[in-house]
Amino acid sequence: MRSVCGKNILMDWVYLSPHLDDVALSCGGMVWEQVRAGNRVSIWTICAGDPAEEDLSPFAKSLHDRWGNHVNSTISRRVEEDLASCAILGADACHFEVLDCIYRRSPDSGYFLYDSEELLTGPIHPSDKILADRLGEDLANLLPQGARVVCPLAAGDHVDHHLTRATAENTALPLFYYVDYPYVLDAPGQLAALRRDGWTTVRTRVSEQGMDAWEKAVAAHTSQISTFWDNLDGMRAELRDYRRLGVGSTLWQPPK
Q: How far apart are the C-alpha atoms of 47 and 232, rounded to whole Å?
């Protein structure tokens, strides 16, 4: 890990983020409101590891070309963006060294596990299930005593979101869940299924100040804006539309 986190750190909420932007994207306004209310909040990013620059699949190289950086500068830049984003929200940051799915290889054969857009969504590879078991044990030993833990629902089925959720659930701790934005926009039926299954919700009102912080926190992830939007104005407009739905200010809990 690149930053300090563990049982000795006093914390009210710990948000688990698959990548170095997912919490900001999905529920940054809610995090800001919790901090404003006096809560100590930390964002722990699971897939923040540095791959070797010479160890990239053609698919990963194509993504780096789109992002406009070589691999190490890309990861370093994204970490800096995340620290800036967390500072806007008033949250601490913790970065684990698991590689993003586009860099992960099979521990047995060495082939790339996810080397196409199509493989980024769906079930995780069996070797990732083993990884989630190990990470779950590590996480259970690191989480601050009494902290409420929030993990992604994996709405939209991104494999790293599934990995993060499986890791959290392997701790055997009670969990809250946030909805993955913008991936949920392609999977609206998943939330309806939760309601049918008896999941309950806790909602936090995101004020205009909170909305402003949310936009700025997302904008701090400069390298990733082009992944989802044409420009910052488009991001702000769509994020405000999402705020009106109330999904980004809602936490979910499974039936007891």
A: 25
